[in-house]
Amino acid sequence: MGESSANGSPTSADAAGRALAARVADIAPFQVARVFERARQLERAGRRIVHWELGEPDFPSAPTVVAAGKAALDAGRTGYTETLGLPVLRQAIAERYPAAVDAGRVAVTTGASAALNLLAQTLIDPGDDVLLADPGYPCNQGFVRAAGGVPKRVPVDARTAFRLTLPALRAAWTPRTRVVLLASPANPTGALLAANEIRAIVEFAAAAGAVVVMDEIYQGLVYDERDPDPFARTALGLDDRVFVVNSFSKYFGMTGWRLGWLVAPPWAMDAIDRCAQNLYLAPPTVSQHAALAALEPPALAVHEARRRVLARRRDVFLRGMDALALPVAHRPQGAFYIYADISATGLPAQAFCGRLLEEFGVAAAPGTDFGSHRAEAHVRFAFTVDEADIRRGLERLGAACRAMIGSPR
Ligand SMILES: Cc1ncc(COP(=O)(O)O)c(C=O)c1O
User: For all residues of the chain together, what is the average pLDDT?
Assistant: First the structure.
């Protein structure tokens, strides 16, 4: 029972207790959002903060993308589009993949977020188990729960280079497993899955009556290949049964335009269309016109140059970490995160991030945002800031380590 006010009417806490769905109690807040807000507060008070907490590069969208968005506005393209996106954009996305993809299998969505939510609504029944990596992208659990599913986190760590492997999936499999959610490159570790591993997982899942959703939002952001084609590394073409999610947010530098896509087997498209009609009506129109430009050579050249900048930043960061007492849990091959093992400091992740921000002016995401498996022993640093800030942050991190290692919890 909630408390009543002096006149006997229900308090707002009481009303909320009755009105809010029970399910929202299970939805965890982002600790990194709190870190970011506190960092902003400190900046307003005059502190110089190094921002390593956010999964968003510091680049604005490419000039031709911005121009295409402005042109769409000037031309009055402000109404709805088709639910699954502009046919010309679906076609342009389909044509980018190395193995021919039918444009009818592409759905344009409001970010990868909407693609993941649509797939959760389309594929998961109440009580179904969904296997996902721990650590992994935190919102996936929310999508699964919103569809009534049960997220089952499968621990991954340095022993498998943070890859969710078939043996680990087999061990976690239950009769209610309906969906396996993979990501490559992965957040927060930058781990990559090999083609043969993906193929084996899709085979196994199909034989067991389950499907695989592959999150490729960091596709294109890989660093150890010469002249990589940003669309080459994909689960599409390995097996037609896989569902692929992608986005214009990361490689294409368009986080705020809120645009992504999915590619699904043909048999699922009608159901996805019906869900999308009901949940979203259509993805953002101006953003779709801008995205057409993002797939054209002038913007692709900008994105590719930025990938090379990110590769350099990663190397500077990793060299700096080598010089510190904090081991990198996994050398990231993709995405833009360093997942560091902070157990030597003796502090749990949140306390470490708190001290790092308050005393040393560096904002970072605690491992506990990404799961529970050895989460207290890890933090995520995003190399989404320029090299000067990476070097500044490394100096401060070095000072923090010297101060913390051996200090009492
Ligand atoms: C692994 C992963 N998937 C999905 C998303 C959602 O991205 P968006 O909705 O901006 O496309 C993110 C964002 O950080 C992510 O890291």
Answer: 93
Q: Would the CB of 187 count as within 6 Å of ligand 1?
A: yes
Which residues, 6+ apart, have CB-to-CB distance to 218 below 8 Å? 183, 184, 185, 186, 187, 190, 250, 251, 334, 335, 336
Q: Does residue 215 have its Cβ closer than 6 Å to ligand 1? A: yes
137 Cβ below 6 A of ligand 1: yes
Q: Is the CB of 118 under 6 A from ligand 1?
A: no
Mean pLDDT score, 215-240: 88
Closest ligand 1 atom to residue 183 Cα is: 1
- Band of the pLDDT at 4, cuts 50, 70, 90? very low
Q: Does domain 77-296 have CATH number 3.40.640.10?
A: yes
- The token duo for 359 is 């005393």
Pairing of strands 129-134, 362-363: unpaired
pLDDT of amino acid 7: 52
Binding site membership of 110 for ligand 1 (Cβ less than 6 Å): no
DSSP 8-state assignment for residue 257: G
| The ligand 1 atom nearest the CA atom of 247 | 11
Radius of gyration for the alpha carbons in the chain, expressed in angstroms and rounded: 22
Across 354-373, average pLDDT? 97
Q: Determine which residue's CA is closest to atom 14 belonging to ligand 1.
A: 55
Q: Residue 127 and residue 159: Cα distance in Å, rounded? A: 31
Q: Answer for the pair 93, 261: CB distance below 8 angstroms, yes or no.
A: yes
In the chain, CATH 3.90.1150.10 sits at 17-60+300-404
Ligand 1 atom, smallest distance to 259 CA: 11
CA 189 / ligand 1 centre spacing (Å): 14
The full DSSP string for 44-84 is HTT---EE---SS-SPPPPHHHHHHHHHHHHTT--S---TT
Residue 213, classed as helix, strand or coil, is strand
In CATH, the number for domain 17-60+300-404 is 3.90.1150.10
pLDDT per position as a tens digit, 333-345: 999 999 999 999 9
Retrieve residue 54's tokens: 């956010």
